[in-house]
Amino acid sequence: MSDPQSALVLFSGGQDSATCLAWALDRFDGVETIGFEYGQRHRVELDCRAAFREGLARLNPAWAARLGEDHTLSLDALAAISDTALTSDAEIRMREDGLPNTFVPGRNLLFLTFAAAVAYRRGLRHLVGGMCETDYSGYPDCRDDTLKALQVALNLGMERRFVLHTPLMWLDKAATWRLAHELGGEALVDLVREETHTCYLGERTRRHAWGYGCGACPACELRRRGWEAYAAG
Q1: Strand order from edge to edge, sheet including 124-128
Q2: pTM here?
Q3: Looking at residue 90, what DSSP letter applies?
Q4: Which 3 state secondary structure label does DSSP give 124?
Q5: Distance between CA 195 and CA 50 in Å, rounded?
Q6: H or E element in which residue 52 lies
Q7: Does domain 3-231 have CATH number 3.40.50.620?
Q8: Buried residues in 22-38 as b, exposed as e (16+ CB within 10 A)
Q9: Taking the alpha carbons of 205, 99, 110, 76 in that order, is the dihedral positive or negative?
Q10: pLDDT (tens digit per residue) in 189-211
């Protein structure tokens, strides 16, 4: 039987999922995390996960008590079947259909399906993801309609009443920084800046006010603009 007060957070090591992890720890009695290795060129994001989890535990004793097991799954098939700038060294550019070529078809659909399978086995009821269609790159699998439809499919296909939470869905990036501040003050904001990774190129040698990254890819642009709006008050 599933625990109605337990959650599994899709935690990539990036800003959005890191903020969602803090959000979940503030709400649920038990929280586990899951990450995916799928041949992403910014694999360094996975290396950030442990340090961020440890930082959260130090920030708040209640969070430390609620933070449970971490899971990492390999989905190498995603890189094998996709031809994108996120799973190869191709130049990042816009496609003719208006989507950036960083879009990995089916990625979030697979992530959530595998997460639900792990949650089924672990007895976790709530699934939490950092998908957003307010300040985003236009990915169709980040849209609210997509995720609501997927929740229905998961519940029907697994005979469980999973609840899918997307706390950032209607927030822009500035509001996401503000949410981190509301949850954990400047200490959490600083932890997000230092110990998360968003840059699609996997660049962690250049330090900016908002964190590490190349400063030019779409992910860095979104994070930078959000930080500047947040810092401006």
Answers
A1: 67-74, 30-37, 3-10, 124-128, 163-165
A2: 0.93
A3: P
A4: strand
A5: 9
A6: helix 44-59
A7: yes
A8: bbbbeebebbbbbbbeb
A9: negative
A10: 999 999 999 999 999 999 999 99
